[in-house]
Amino acid sequence: xxxxxxxxxxxxxxxxxxxxxxxxxxxxxxxxxxxxxxxxx
Length: 41
Known about the structure:
This protein has 41 residues and is an all-alpha fold. It has one helix at 9-40. 0% of the residues are buried.
């Protein structure tokens, strides 16, 4: 399992940044859809 994690800190930083971007974009899209649903009512 731990063999998959690279020792290069640059790759780890890139992966962490990508995961946070995906997470925040998911939250933003979810909030936008919920606000749109409430606005349509």
